[in-house]
Amino acid sequence: MKKVIPFLCAATIVGAPFSAYAQEVTELKQSAEVNETVTDSDQTDGELIEEETPGIEELKELTLEDVITRGTENSRNLTVLQFNLEATKNQILDTEHSQNDVSKDIRDLQKKMDALKKERERLSDTSQIIMNGQERIAINNSLEALENQIQSLETAVKQLETGQVQLQLQEEEAKEGVRLMLTSSYTNLLVQKEQIAFAKKSIQSASQDVQKAQRLFDYGLGTKEDIRQVQIIQTNLEKQLEELEKNYNRSVATLSFDIGVAYNPGMVIQPIKYEVANNQKPEDYRSLIDNTYKVKRAQNSLESAIIARDDAYKKYKENKVGAKVSQYQVEQRDYEVKAAEETIALTKENIETAVEQMYHNEELTFFTYEEALRKLENVKKDLKVLETRYKLGVVTKYDYEKALTQLDQAELNVYSASIPNYLIQQSIQALEKGYVQ
């Protein structure tokens, strides 16, 4: 069952850690985990300080699509991930280049070894034979060291490649998280606009109440206390409006910063359309879970742990000089693989719980929206009857206009009830792309 309305939403976002066993990949992780916190210690009570910033574009209006595009391009976290991804690619190329250099050195030493073996067959002098043997032993030791180096470089390349995949997954996950965050920020502005519009109408209604109380007092049918009480209500509503407008301006400033444009309090925020829905929960969503970035990153970490374990086993069995690995190191790698396997299972369980809750919340929000819609229809029916009585002169203009405020309130309630539903729908769409909070 779907209903189409123009409107809004609110919040979500994401984080994404990863582990790898190569030192280079660890450094990439540390540099990728950058958190930006925007503070404004010079502002108080919602006051905004406007500064002209050269070179920053000022927009007259915004659409959600434009916000997502600009915000994604302006995200420093994404920029850091992209730079780290390029750095990893270059590290892989550099390591492969080193591999080629070592392979060339091995070939050169092998040729020299072959030459020494042929020379040995022609030698008859004992001292020369001894010297020949010593050279061959030295070359053989060098070859063994180079072979160990080659093995280490091969492992490093594999680890860097898993680190590269990890960064790619992080980048895609971060993009989807940024999209949800910006959608939340944008629709929050739409909500605040509706709240401001309703607050202004409420103040107009309160002003009419003050005028009515004054007239009743003038006619001897009211008291000064009656006037004071309605004046208090009007003043409170004006204060609420002031706070709403400050919050709105602050939200505009924050979003402008996030998408890299100049702050313009008069910027028009274009409305959006979406469908309020109660989607059917899939009978089996294991494939959705397996396709999430979190599971993929956990599986990638397992691959990295397996590479490190296999390398340790190989070195332990060969027991080469300069590449010795103790039994404790081998057992450590075994436990790391087991921990990575357990992490995958735990990640899947947590995501399954989150997905169950997601669809349950969608059902609840849809019910809340339907209830708000039902109450709105009742208000409309009551207002229709009141309008007829007003035209017949049975009801005063004051009472009829007072009822119109109730209609505005009911419509705002419908919009507000639709927001969580829209947000969950966005989260479900993100899940289908692999993102889960």
3D architecture notes:
With 437 residues, the chain is mostly helical. The chain has a single domain (2-35, 61-433), classed as Outer membrane efflux proteins (OEP) (Up-down Bundle), CATH 1.20.1600.10. 76% of the residues lie in helices and 3% in strands. It contains 9 helices and 4 strands, in the order E-H-E-H-H-H-H-E-E-H-H-H-H. It has helices spanning 23-32, 64-74, 76-122, 126-218, 224-259, 286-290, 293-318, 327-391, 397-433, and strands spanning 2-6, 61-62, 268-269, 273-277. The strands form 2 sheets. Strands 1-4 form a two-stranded antiparallel ribbon. It has a two-stranded parallel sheet with strand order 2-3. Helix 4 runs antiparallel to helix 7. The longest helix has 93 residues, at 126-218. The chain is elongated. The model is unreliable at 1-53 (pLDDT under 50).
- Report, as a whole number of angstroms, the end-to-end distance: 27 Å
- Major sheet attributes: 2 strands, antiparallel
Kindly report the oligomeric state of this protein: single chain
As residue ranges, the low-confidence spans are 1-53
